[in-house]
Each structure stands twice: as structure tokens, then as C-alpha cells.
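Worked example

This section walks through a single chain of length 309. The input is the sequence exactly as stored; nothing has been trimmed or padded.
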Amino acid sequence: MLLFASVHFLLLGGAAPELAAHYPNLSAAAAPDSDPTALFRSFALDHADVLVQLLATRSTQTNEVGRCAQFLPAFGLLDQQVGSLAHIDVGTSAGLNLLLPRFAYEYSKSGSVEPGQPSPVRLHCEERGELPVPLPARMPQVTHSVGLDLAPIDVLDDDQVRWLQACVWPDQADRFERLVAAIGMARHDPPRIHQGDALTDLAPLVEQALPDGHPVITNSWVLNYLPDSVRGQYVAELDRIGSRTDMSWVIAEAPAQTPGLPVPTTDPPEEITVITLVRWRQGERSVQRLGTTHPHGYWVQWEGLPHTE
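Given that input, the structure is written out below as C-alpha cells.
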């Protein structure tokens, strides 16, 4: 994946138009019928030095805004229950998921949810199964938002943005286009991001958020990158904070890859993404499994199972 991303990174910089013509996200015309393998191999060998440097110094970095379609129904439920929300996105990358209230959403059965102003990002989500997704009547009121990441992406840094774009698979042109549009929104009004560690810096961010709204922590395909022991410490830290502060946690992770999370799942654990809502109220924790979803938010199957523990 890093090799493909590194080549994509160089093509995004204008290198090798003949090879770039085979990339659907980089060419307005239809891709040539010829096999690009020889071109790719030749390009990689001709640029070996710079590719080796990229492979040695970069890591996979994505910020999939389609996952906001997974979070929106949970935010709607919480908005109805507790009012204004303070969003804290852990593992936030460039902070693009903090723009959740500024995106437009369209679900195949339940309709659409629109922001206050027209948005350049419109997320389409197919609804599977028998239960409709309980969409809010209006966009949830998010009055505070901040991201937390060990190595956040600066949306004003062209090199960092190009690497973020390079990690999107080039045959998924729609993902690439909405990422570019979301980056444009973020550059106009950059999200607030705190560079730090989830184990030591989350509690202060929750404290800062409290005057503005009910704290809502989100994770989406982040916790699978943590060692099991660190993931356990993270859950313990959330429990510690929740023992004295009412807050909520929306999880979009694959149980098979994230053991130790309070996510109701099957035996063996599911490989698919499960959306879970964890609430702490007056020191008591409850867990509600909401449904399953495509990892990039293309579809969701709502379950809305009762609170469990």
C-alpha cells in the first residue's frame, strides 16, 4: 500500500502523465486500454531513490469523510437526548470529520439532512436491512469541536495534503473528489486540532468542552492501530473520565481487529465495521449497538439494539 501511495504521490505532483492517464482520479478521459504494469514498473525503477525515501519515512494516513454518514444518526440521537454536542475526534488526521455538521447527507430510504448552507460535500449512504436509519429532523447542533492526533495533518501544508490524497485508492475517484472538496472546506476554515496522546490529553479536552456542550468522543478505524494493551488503557481512561462526567462515545471499528472494546459482537468477532454508542450518565456506563456499516460509509444496516452492558 505504501508503494502504491508513494507512486500516486509523485503522480499527483505532475510526474509521468503517460502513467497518470491510467489513474481514474487523475485523468478526465477514459483510461487507456493498454496494461499499465510496464509503465508502473519502469517509473518505479526510474524513481527508486525518492520512492525508497518515501517508503522509509511515510506511513499510511487517511481521513475518510464518508464515515460521517455513520456518525450522523448517533449524533442525532444524542442531540435529542442531551442538546448541544461538543465533538472530540480521536485519531483525527486532518480533522475533516469535525466538519460533520457542514456536510450534506442523503440516505437511500430515509431521506436527506442538509447543513445550514449549501455544501460542496454530499455523502450518499445506502440503507440495508429492514430498519430505516433514524435521521434527525435537522442537523445536530455541534457547538464545540476539536481533534486529537499524535501526528495531525496540516490542511494548509501542500506536501502533507498531497500525501493524504495519495493514500486514497486512485480507482475510487468519488472518494478522492470528496476528500479534495473537504480539504478545500477545511482550508477556508481550519478545524481545531490538538497534537497529543489520547491517554494523557483526552481528559483536558473533555474538561475544556464541557461549558459548550455534551462531550461526544468519536473513533473510526483508528483503534485497530493500537497495541492491545494501549487500547485497554484507552478504554480505562474513558471509563475514568465517564465516572465523573456525563459523556458519550461513538465507535466505528471492526471488532475482530479491536479486541477489548465495549462493542457487542459475534463469536468469533466480526470483521465488518460495527457502530456502537457508549453512554456515561451519572457515573454509569451503558452500551448500545447501532448497526453495521461499510468501512468508508457507503452503506449502513441499522439495528438500534437496546442498551446493554
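What to look for: The two ends are 38 Å apart (CA to CA).
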